[in-house]
Amino acid sequence: MSGEPMSDRAARHIAAFNDSVRSGEWADFAGRFTPDATMRFAGMPVGPFTGREAIAAGYASQPPSDTLTVTRGVSSGDVDELWFAWDSSGATGTMIVRWRGDLIAELTVTFS
Question: According to CATH, what is the number of the domain 4-111?
Answer without folding.
Answer: 3.10.450.50
